């Protein structure tokens, strides 16, 4: 099964990715799946991504003219501009993103940063969701389980405050599920559970699959009907198990 089907993503509109490590891999795989079926797809960022990550999704396009040229020449592009100070890619103007969606129909945007850690708690200004996005997918890495939250979570002090634990507390499936579904966690600013999905990455071995299933069950206990996918995004056949959305 492909990720587009497993996550039950609509064929049109923006899908925004939030949470921990694995967002770039997920974005690239979704763009590749669409292109493989002859369907256009636009990658984007509303925060920052590496230049190599953007180029892997398609030619960089930071203006309306560049987007139109990219669409004439192929099925994919990355809507982003280069930040001179860092060389990283950052968000283009809002009108460029809007025009890009009209051209490509389907877009997937990284809307959160996690410093390559498997978990994330959003600050007050985060996540940077695209207004009226169709779906928000929260990503988390199962490598966080069993390790201290202070070592595995970006903005761990915020996560500890939300969950009422200390930084030395070991992450359990229950704690991870609580952060993913908390209204000040990954569910922040989503509102409707039916447009929220969770992808549990790094389900690479039987032991992690057991923990992934426990986490998925807890997520759906906190937010009934939410779709959860367990996956190993580095594997050729990456989808491992699907808990269907409402």
Short description:
The protein is α/β, with parallel strands linked by helices. The protein is 34% helix and 23% strand.
General description of the model:
By secondary structure, the chain is of the alpha/beta class. It is 34% helix and 23% strand. It has 9 helices and 14 strands. The chain has helices at residues 3-6, 23-36, 51-57, 64-73, 94-104, 149-152, 156-163, 173-181, 206-222, and strands at 13-19, 41-45, 48-49, 60-61, 76-79, 81-82, 89-90, 106-110, 119-120, 135-141, 153-154, 196-201, 227-231, 239-243. The strands form 3 sheets. Strands 4-5-2-8-1-10-12-13-14 form a 9-stranded mixed β-sheet, sandwiched between helices. The protein has a 3-stranded antiparallel β-sheet with strand order 3-7-6. Strand 6 and strand 7 form a beta hairpin. Helix 4 runs parallel beside helix 5 and helix 8 (173-181) crosses helix 9 (206-222). The radius of gyration is 17 Å and the shape is globular. The model has no long low-confidence stretch (mean pLDDT 94).
């Amino acid at each position: 099964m492909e990720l587009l089907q497993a996550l039950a993503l609509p064929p049109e509109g923006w899908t925004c990715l939030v949470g921990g490590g694995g967002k770039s891999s997920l974005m690239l795989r979704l763009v590749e799946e669409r292109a493989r079926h002859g369907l256009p797809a636009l990658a984007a960022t509303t925060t920052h991504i590496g230049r190599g990550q953007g180029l892997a999704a398609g030619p960089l396009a930071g203006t309306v003219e560049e987007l139109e040229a990219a669409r004439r020449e192929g099925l994919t592009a990355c809507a982003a501009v280069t930040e001179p100070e860092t060389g990283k890619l950052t968000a283009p103007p809002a009108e460029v993103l809007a025009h890009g969606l009209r051209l490509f129909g389907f877009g997937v945007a990284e809307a959160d940063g996690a410093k390559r850690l498997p978990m994330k708690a959003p600050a007050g200004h985060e996540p940077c969701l695209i207004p009226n996005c169709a779906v928000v997918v929260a990503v988390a890495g199962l490598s966080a389980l069993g390790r201290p939250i202070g070592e595995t979570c970006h903005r761990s002090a915020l996560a500890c405050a939300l969950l009422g634990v200390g930084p030395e507390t070991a992450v359990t499936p229950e704690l991870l599920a609580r952060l993913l579904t908390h209204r000040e966690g990954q569910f922040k600013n989503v509102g409707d559970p039916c447009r929220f999905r969770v992808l549990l990455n790094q389900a690479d071995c039987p032991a992690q699959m057991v923990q992934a299933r426990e986490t998925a069950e807890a997520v759906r206990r906190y937010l009934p009907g939410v779709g959860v996918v367990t996956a190993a995004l580095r594997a050729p056949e990456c989808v491992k198990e699907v808990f269907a959305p409402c």
